[in-house]
Amino acid sequence: MGSATTIRVNVRMIAATHRDLRAMIEEEKFREDLFYRFNVFPIEIPPLRERREDIPLLVNFFVSKFAARMQKQITSVSRQAMEMLTNCPWKGNVRELANFIERAVIITGGEELQVPLAMLPTSSDIVMAVSAPSSFRQAESNVIIDALRAAAGRIAGKGGAAERLGLKRTTLQNKIRRLGITKGQYAN
């Protein structure tokens, strides 16, 4: 630019989007000619929530990467933490997961990754790994029971079910009462 001499270059361009460009073309929100210039060799990757088997691999990769950068010796992620990370919807895909793991590495003081449970998506966002419940009430009950089991029956405090679900202790207690959840449903 700014020269009278032509300089030839050979470049490859990679563009990524989460939008439906064909629909945007129909709505006249994206130029059709530009779409065909970009759409030479399309690669479609499903969102992270549709390929949950990749999450543990990505978590381990990001933990190693960020721990090395911050000069920390983080050697493990608890099974419980990995299950919670795997069951999150990660609407921001890999970038959201990476940012979350970076925050976790920052706050970790020992050799096991400390997952900031309060920062995980709320229970209303968590995708159920069990068979489809018959109603919203049943789904809510299942999520609460799973959280109580993971917290060894503890409702409040650090690592308690309320923290895991992103709820206040009193709100969770009211839900338990309203749904008729008994200790026998979640006690080990």
Overview of the structural elements:
By secondary structure, the protein is mainly alpha-helical. The chain is built from nine helices and no strands. The protein has helices spanning 21-26, 32-38, 55-69, 79-86, 93-107, 136-150, 161-165, 169-179, 183-186. Helix 3 (55-69) crosses helix 5. The protein is elongated and about 80 Å long. The protein starts with 20 loop residues before the first helix and ends with a helix. Residues 123-132 have low confidence and may be disordered.
Q: Which ranges are low-confidence, i.e. pLDDT below 50, for 5 or more consecutive residues?
A: 123-132
Taking all Cα atoms into account, the compactness measure Rg is 23 Å
* Global structural class: mainly alpha
Beta strand %: under 5%
Count of separate DSSP helical elements: 9
Largest sheet at a glance? none
Query: How much helix, percentage-wise, in residues?
Result: 40-55%
Order of helices and strands: HHHHHHHHH
In quaternary terms, these chains amount to single chain
Mean pLDDT: 85
Separation, N- and C-terminal Cα atoms = 71 Å
